[in-house]
Batch of 2 targets.
Target 1
Amino acid sequence: DAMVIQNPRYQVTQFGKPVTLSCSQTLNHNVMYWYQQKSSQAPKLLFHYYDKDFNNEADTPDNFQSRRPNTSFCFLDIRSPGLGDAAMYLCATSRDAGNEQFFGPGTRLTVL
Amino acid sequence: GQSLEQPSEVTAVEGAIVQINCTYQTSGFYGLSWYQQHDGGAPTFLSYNALDGLEETGRFSSFLSRSDSYGYLLLQELQMKDSASYFCAPSSGTYKYIFGTGTRLKVLA
């Protein structure tokens, strides 16, 4: 089945220790998104790629970076995680503008 | 600027009909999506309106009025499994979706 896969599902890191979350898709969609969602809050868009074009949200901290080496994969790098970065990180894809977004199951990040 | 409003919580009984409203102010507006999210799960797509009017998908319908910057999600024949958070998400400019704060729906037996 075509889907969006996120690894790992749960990630524990130490304060200040870099961490990378991965997302892959078999849908061959043009657009990939990274959202941060904290408890009882809405998903907050961090950035998105249309193909290889990177679009960063103005309020996304510099601590968060992303890479999309090919259509199928996208990575979220958190260079120096702080306690406030503990959250669920959701990857999503869409075929094009205005289309349905397909979400992965998310990676729950814990920062100790 | 951009703003988005939806009620924080709605409670209804099984079998009832509930409407969740969403008002938005979004530059470069394309359309309005609705997503359902159960606790601990990922958002799942419910509907998308690009044009004014009502879109019906089974028990769920979604409405959009572009001139009023307003939309709603209508859930009919409520079931216990509909207890979840519901987010409206206007698409802003190209390929970008901004999620509302979400409406927590509680369905009572």
Target 2
Amino acid sequence: GENVEQHPSTLSVQEGDSAVIKCTYSDSASNYFPWYKQELGKRPQLIIDIRSNVGEKKDQRIAVTLNKTAKHFSLHITETQPEDSAVYFCAASMGNSGYALNFGKGTSLLVTP
Amino acid sequence: GAGVSQTPSNKVTEKGKYVELRCDPISGHTALYWYRQSLGQGPEFLIYFQGTGAADDSGLPNDRFFAVRPEGSVSTLKIQRTERGDSAVYLCASSLLAQNEQFFGPGTRLTVL
């Protein structure tokens, strides 16, 4: 079936540096791309999302870019803080299923002080 | 306001038994999704409800899995003849409309011995 590839699987940065996580998708009908943050033992929490009619969206230290032609999208976190440490998942909507989501395998981000 | 709730939080059962997992979505949310998450993986889509009807059940792994949402609110995921491979965290999410942000519940951790 359709899938979402996410890289890297682990990422370690120093506090204050930027972190970038990249995803590619295969379903050309996907039109909604959320990013979720999941802390250990907790539920996924939406941090930012983008729809296919927009190329970039920013919310304070977090930004997402989307290239529909190339079928890839990226999460950028600037001025990272230790509390940004978590697993981040990208997802793409399933074209034939409303907005049910295909998730990537996750990126474990560690921000060291 | 109350978020998505799921019960039980943990369920341990023996191979071959039947289990029911419950999801209470946010009041007024019309769309409801079930996902399951194995350790170290992203959530995997199972089924999506729009109102009372299953709009897409293509993610259910086999006919041992079934879900209902009889009044368009609470949903129950039912698993017959459980297998050890069914062990995972089962997540429920709801959204106001299908195209809106999905809010996740805390999940039910199912362990099949």
